[in-house]
Design a protein that fits this description.
The complex is a heterodimer of chains A (about 475) and B (about 70).
Chain A lengths: L1 E2 L5 E2 L9 E6 L2 E7 L3 H9 L2 H7 L6 E6 L6 E7 L13 H20 L2 E3 L7 E4 L2 E4 L5 E3 L9 H17 L6 H5 L6 H7 L8 H17 L4 E4 L6 H16 L13 H4 L2 H20 L3 E5 L5 H8 L3 E6 L2 H14 L4 E5 L27 E4 L3 H5 L6 H11 L2 E6 L5 H7 L11 H9 L2 E8 L6 E7 L4
Parallel strand pairs in A: 1-5, 12-13, 12-15, 13-14, 15-16
Antiparallel strand pairs in A: 2-3, 3-4, 4-6, 5-6, 7-10, 8-9, 16-18, 17-18
Helix pairs in contact in A: 3-4, 3-8, 4-7, 6-7, 10-11, 14-16
Chain B lengths: L1 H5 L4 E4 L14 H41 L1
Classes of the chains: A alpha/beta (about 475), B mainly alpha (about 70).
């Protein structure tokens, strides 16, 4: 298939692996396969491996295309299936990272069966379509030629095993270490942070603590290593099997995190949930969105309503426990239209990495048709002191439509917030809220919720703002 | 760590000798040595696990067919 093209734009993260590169042309995403990688690519396609793992939904499918503009040194150009929303490992809940790790191992094992090897084990090679993890790097496969060592062993431990252990044994917020260390959490950092008791588990002792010690011992050795003449196929499979057992043993229960029991623990539900649900549904129907970002989504109750309206929904919340619950619920039903992610609106993922172009900011990764901001405004305006006009400006920049719930000071949630601090929020009233938002939005609908002082709004961004 | 790593007959060569081509990733010297050091142990455990699975599945098949006969 021939595809016309303008000037290609090379993806900012596609430079490490010389096997090929990602580029976009006219908004379409392509992956080039370099001449040097031709043999491995052909083997991937002819060995049955590509077919097996794409049929299983584990690897993103692609079609081969021909571009009119010649790109030097290119053997093939692929057009991969698009991922609705790109996410990063620190934005994943515990089980998302765990499932991504298991998928990586599963694919590595299937590659071994066909005498190929997964040459890297970066968590960035996994994305989620809703709650289904999928491997996206088609060029990660090489023909097995050396003695059988897995060159990505350290990378797997640093991208998956160490972060999983740190999250469950120390604190889920240590997911942020993956944001700090884009190339994987160094094992010596994991070794230093993990409690001594973690050494009692043989797999953790081996793959993190002893592994880290080996790295330290040879860190300054100005030497290169000659591989042994023979490492058996059994040992190769054994390493993957051991890592699989280590990952499977990593479990974390979200009980007790700040917001994971929000709906269960508040009297809010009895008050107006039914009315709020029907209004949200009605507003969404009016927008008919293709994509929705549900900000402060908690366990995703309203994200599920957004999906009913036909939208692919990115369900964002700051609480790891709430996102974990949302993800588990989605996995149980095979949900591929809701992507739960951990995100702190007060400190969302910025542009990161080399030249600040390797990893895109949260807000730079998509343009939703609408934003849901339910039971959220008081957390931003009062708990974090963000002035209402600034909140309106952010939401207006994100999407043309906004469904927002105003939570007044008379609400029990806000009263609790103000019980231990001085009320410096004189403009935090329904009138003040509407005045601030009218600068950027046209208020299409405003409906007070039954038996509550809260108000639901449907707003559209002003074209003259 | 010392005896474990030294006991598998690995060769450390001086810098400047061309290294083996191991892909575009830097696998890390210590990490590679460690992987090779644990390969035997993991292989042994894996062989035991695989054998155990075969034995237990043989017994469960046999007991299943006996139940079926009954």
């Amino acid at each position: 298939m021939k595809t016309a093209m303008r000037e290609p734009a090379w993806h900012g993260a596609s430079f490490r692996d010389p096997s090929g590169h990602i580029l976009t042309v006219d908004g379409e995403l392509y992956r080039t396969v370099s001449e040097d990688y031709a043999r491995d690519y052909d083997r991937l396609m002819s060995s049955g491996l590509y077919r097996a793992i794409t049929d299983a939904g584990q690897l993103i499918a692609h079609e081969e295309v021909r571009l009119l503009t010649d790109i030097g040194g290119t053997y093939r150009v692929l057009r991969p299936e698009r991922i609705p929303f790109v996410s990063y490992p620190w934005e994943w809940s515990f089980s998302q990272l765990r499932d991504a790790a298991l998928l990586t191992l599963d694919i590595a094992e299937q590659a071994l069966e066909r005498d190929m090897v997964l040459k890297d084990a970066s968590a960035f090679n996994v994305q989620f379509i809703g709650t289904r993890p999928v491997f996206i790097d088609t060029l990660s496969f090489e023909t097995q030629t050396d003695g059988g060592s897995w060159v990505a062993y350290r990378q797997f431990c640093e991208h998956f095993l160490a972060p999983l252990e740190l999250r469950r044994r120390v604190h889920p917020s240590l997911a942020g270490l993956s944001r700090e260390y884009l190339d994987g959490v160094p094992l010596e950092v994991a070794h230093a942070l993990l409690p001594v008791t973690s050494r009692l588990r043989p797999s953790t002792m081996m793959h993190i603590h002893a592994h880290s010690a080996a790295q330290r011992r040879y860190a300054d050795a100005q030497a290169t290593v000659e591989r042994p003449r023979f490492v058996s196929g059994t040992s190769r499979r054994a390493l993957l099997d051991s890592l699989r057992s280590a990952v499977k043993a990593c479990r974390w229960e979200p009980n007790g995190t700040e917001w994971s029991g929000y709906y269960e623990n508040t009297n809010y539900e009895a008050c107006s949930m039914e009315h709020k649900t029907s209004l949200t549904r009605e507003f969404l129907h009016a927008i008919a969105p293709r994509t929705i970002w549900d900000l402060g989504a908690n366990t995703g109750r309203f994200s599920r309503i957004a999906v009913e309206s036909g939208a692919y929904t990115v369900s964002l919340d700051v609480d790891h426990g709430a996102v974990e619950k949302a993800y588990r619920a989605g996995r149980e039903t095979g949900e591929e239209r809701i992507l739960p992610l951990v995100a702190d609106l007060m400190n969302p993922t910025p542009n990161m990495g080399w030249a600040l172009r390797e990893r895109d900011s949260l807000f730079g990764r998509g343009s939703p048709d609408g934003v849901l901001a339910l039971a959220l405004i008081h957390h931003i305006a009062i708990a974090n002191n963000v002035p209402l006009p600034r909140i309106a400006a952010l939401f207006a920049d994100l999407a043309p439509w906004l469904i927002i719930e105003f939570v007044p000071k008379s609400d029990s949630q806000v009263r609790r917030m103000l019980s231990s601090r001085r009320d410096i929020f004189s403009s935090y009233t329904r009138e003040g809220f509407e005045a601030a938002f009218k600068d950027r939005f046209v208020i299409e609908r405003s409906v007070p919720l039954a038996e509550c002082d809260r108000v639901m709004y449907l707003m559209r961004t002003r074209s003259d703002a | 760590m010392g005896p474990l790593l030294d006991g598998v007959g690995l060769v450390i060569r001086d810098a400047g000798t061309p290294p083996y081509m191991l892909g575009y990733l830097d696998a890390g010297t210590g990490s590679l040595l460690f992987q090779w050091a644990i390969a035997g142990l993991l292989g042994f455990v894996f062989a035991l696990k695989t054998s155990w699975r075969r034995i237990s599945s043989w017994f469960s098949r046999r007991s299943g067919s006996e139940d079926g006969d009954a």
